[in-house]
Amino acid sequence: MAVTSPSRTQEERSRDMRALLIEATLDCLQAQGFHGASLSVILDRAGVSRGAWAHHFSSKHDLLAAAAEAMMAEAAVAARAVTATLDGEEDRFAALIEQVWQRFYRGRHRDVLFELVVACRTDGELAQRLRPVFIELIESFRGAWGSATPDASGGGDLLTLTLFVLRGMAMQEMLAESADGQAALRGLWTGISRDFLQSRHDRPLRQGAGGPLLGAIT
What we know:
Elements: H1 10-36, H2 39-46, H3 50-54, H4 60-85, H5 92-104, H6 107-122, H7 124-140, H8 142-148, H9 156-175, H10 183-201, E1 207-208, E2 211-212
Antiparallel strand pairs: 1-2
Helix pairs in contact: 1-2, 1-4, 1-6, 4-5, 4-7, 4-8, 5-10, 6-7, 9-10
């Protein structure tokens, strides 16, 4: 006797449709850019009719904002999980910088991030909706920062500046891709940050309860 799976609820179908449209929107933002990702392009990518789309989002702007919020929320979860990837690393601080670069400043996340940042410059409504999400993403890195350094402040301005520096490197990488992905510059910034943290604590910063913290100070 054939076993039939239970039918999905309306809520489940709606959730799946929203997820499909959001994923298609992010793909189109990366491939066509903010202004090129028209509603027709997005719906063609998702394989969804205009009638079906209208049941889930009030406008294209609403869909774009929801997609951006979903991407940044996923990134915030990933940022909080970075700590686990540092286990066993000899130089946890350098590993943290590298993990953040590889996960958040390359590929689709980087491409869509820049499209959104530029769009927010002239779209006040989008900027207002996304500002809290951007702030939450930065806050999500503080746990990983604390696990890789003895900085009890959770990173403070240095963490924020580090993310801004990596963002600038990512922009340059989009304009003129380098063979090593700006590895030398990341290494330089890691050393500058390490020296700053050492001067703040006024002692060599090598070992901690969770293992090596900043690696060798040179």
